[in-house]
Amino acid sequence: MGMNRQIWYDGRFIAWEDATVHVLAQSIQRGSLAFDYVSVYDTERGAAIFRLPDHLARLIRTCEIMGLPLEQDLDTLIGACIETVRANPGSHSIRICAVLASIEPDVVPIDPHLSIYIAAYDTVSDIIGSRPYERRPNVALKIEREKAGRREDIIPPNAKIAASYTAPMTAKWRARKEGFDDVLLLDEAGWVTEAPTANIFVVKNGALHTPPGSKVVLGVTRRSVMRIAIDAGIEVIEDDLAVDDLRAADELFLTATSAGVWPVLRLDQDIVGNGDVGALTTSLRSTYRKVVTGQDERYREWLTYTD
Ligand SMILES: Cc1ncc(COP(=O)(O)O)c(C=O)c1O
Q1: What is the pTM (predicted TM-score) of this model?
Q2: Which residues line ligand 1 (CB under 6 A)?
Q3: Architecture of domain 139-292 in CATH?
Q4: Contact yes or no for 192/186 (Cβ under 8 A)
Q5: In the chain, what are the domain boundaries?
Q6: Pocket test for ligand 1, best of 151, 165, 197, 254 (most atoms within 8 A of CB)
Q7: Nearest partner of 143 among 102, 171, 113, 177, judged by Cα
Q8: Structure confidence by residue, pLDDT tens digits, 93-115
Q9: Which terminus of the chain has a lower count of CB atoms within 10 Å, N or C?
Q10: Which residue's CA is the nearest one to ligand 1's atom 12?
Q11: What is the mean pLDDT of the chain?
């Protein structure tokens, strides 16, 4: 896995297998690793990173929310990501990790240095390898009624930090054993929030509905799809959604860097809409695909070309 890959670490490159931290490191013990995940697409003009400044701005915001002392500014991080993609040909993903790597006696570290690791790789060849792994083209989604969503009083939902993923992991693991692909997390009051690593959209009477930004990780794909929809004259409404709104949906889809626009065809035991991928989902998915691969001039500024 990751053979011959170079990882950017605090301003220099190290080998993939050397990008390790101690098991007692603060971030491992306390779940304080902040991160972001970005896609790299093959385009006619070579490898292009999708909305890199927006992803890095989200990482910077996560560090601000959580009080993590990030030492690098946006321009340094942009340059580092471009360099890392160049150093790792054939990459389709970038993962930027901010880690409190020192061994600490308490939750507040004596050594506040936040190490930055940037990995650029291909998920299939470098991460999955020969292990069994399947992502179905359409999703069967289980509604997670237990308090497994992000709670404002524990970690603000906008922060993309490792500890936020523990409860969703447990819920999704259980759902997988029941034959679902993913879970949809509700907040304490029962409103819909998001899936563990994706935002949700409802299509109803030709309009798009999605939960408010205050309740979710602010997905870059979410924002892109909203902009594409608005530009196409589609109404987009950010508002609280109840489970019943999902049940009454004409179409449902998830959005995420790793999956793009991902149709949901089953919700708990019910079929969504008429059971097929809907017209608006199909059209947004296809436009999104063109946008990320540089085939739509209108959104070219979202791409950072690296060649
Ligand atoms: C909790 C959560 N919601 C939504 C998303 C989707 O965000 P993006 O579209 O930027 O990948 C992610 C991405 O990893 C996430 O972790």
Answers
A1: 0.97
A2: 37, 160, 194, 197-199, 216-217, 219-222, 255-257
A3: Alpha-Beta Barrel (3.20)
A4: yes
A5: 6-128, 139-292
A6: 197
A7: 171
A8: 999 999 999 999 999 999 999 99
A9: C
A10: 197
A11: 96
